[in-house]
TrEMBL record:
Pfam families: PNP_UDP_1 (PF01048)
Keywords attached to this entry: Glycosidase, Hydrolase
UniProt-recorded name of the protein: 5'-methylthioadenosine/adenosylhomocysteine nucleosidase
One of the GO BP terms on file: nucleoside metabolic process
Length: 255
């Protein structure tokens, strides 16, 4: 039976999943992280909070693979929009990942991971397709209304948030919270096809590539990586992020 590793950035995102694991759940603390081991809807899972940044994500991911033998990894969390086509509230399923802060020039080309000879890593096509279905299921019916209600009324007025779109494409990651027009503009120039930016996805992508493990990253857009990013991020942090991540993941585990 496969074991699914679920990594989240926030405790709120896993609270509902942990409840679903019930009394059979066991815990193990390794490297200052607690791994929750159990089953949800008959699927064997290990759930863990990574904390923030590429080092935290890489360490968590490696433990999931080496100690718990997970056969696939799903990461959920928030991201800042880079593309003009991506709005707050939208969902991004990353198909490609690049570490935007990797720069070993002039020894290696910019963004290339030294001695690995690669700058872009791909997530698992089949897993992305399944996550797309689970997200569509989540967004259809009552739940989308609940989501919009939660951030309404100001979010609707501020951001024109009506239709939540699901995007697929490039995510760029780095150990930086991007929060200025200059910084996001610079990312847009360097990565014309990037949909969003965050601080973990491309690290997980590299580890999963090195170990040959399938993975997927699902991000909810909390901000536009500009001057109001930290304010917008805070607004999404509690209710919305948790609601979307656990909703989509429960659909995924139930399918
Ligand atoms: N996660 C959510 N918003 C972000 C941003 N603006 N920069 C980096 N990571 C993020």
């Amino acid at each position: 039976m496969k074991t699914i590793g679920i990594i989240a950035a926030l405790p709120q995102e896993i609270a509902e999943l942990l409840e679903k694991m019930g009394s059979q759940m066991t815990q193990q603390t390794i490297g200052m992280r607690t791994f929750y081991i159990g089953e949800i809807q008959g699927k064997k899972c290990v759930i863990v909070l990574a904390r923030i940044g590429k080092v935290a994500a890489s360490a968590t991911c490696t433990t999931l693979i080496q100690t718990f033998g997970v056969t696939e990894i799903i990461f959920t969390g928030l991201a800042g929009a880079v593309s003009q086509a991506v709005n707050i509230g939208d969902i991004v399923i990353g198909t490609e990942f690049c570490q935007h802060d990797m720069n070993a020039e002039p020894l290696f080309p910019r963004h290339e991971i030294p001695l690995l000879g690669r700058d872009v890593f791909q997530s698992d096509v089949a897993l992305n397709r399944q996550l797309q279905r689970s997200t569509e299921q989540f967004l259809s019916g009552e739940s989308q209304f609940s989501l919009v209600r939660m951030i309404a009324p100001t979010a609707i007025a501020d951001f024109g948030l009506k239709d939540i779109k699901i995007h697929h494409g490039l995510i760029v990651s780095g150990d930086q919270f991007i929060s200025s027009d200059e910084a996001v503009g610079e990312l847009q120039q360097r990565f014309p096809t990037a949909l969003c930016t965050e601080m973990e996805g491309a690290a997980i992508a590299q580890i999963c590539y090195e170990y040959g493990v399938s993975f997927a990253v699902l991000r909810v857009i909390s901000d536009k990586a500009n001057h109001s990013a930290s304010h917008d991020f805070g607004r999404f942090l509690n209710e919305v992020a948790a609601f979307v991540s656990s909703g989509v993941l429960l659909n995924y585990l139930g399918n």
